[in-house]
Write a structure and sequence with these properties.
Length: 29
């Protein structure tokens, strides 16, 4: 879908929705 989030330095993973993005940020925090 073209939306990506940086979960680790230099690494971007695709996210399918804002909820997934928020969960990913919570997990990496």
């Amino acid at each position: 879908d073209g939306t990506y989030v940086l979960t680790k330095p230099g690494k971007a993973e695709p996210v399918s929705s804002q909820q997934t993005l928020l969960e990913t940020l919570s997990e990496s925090a």
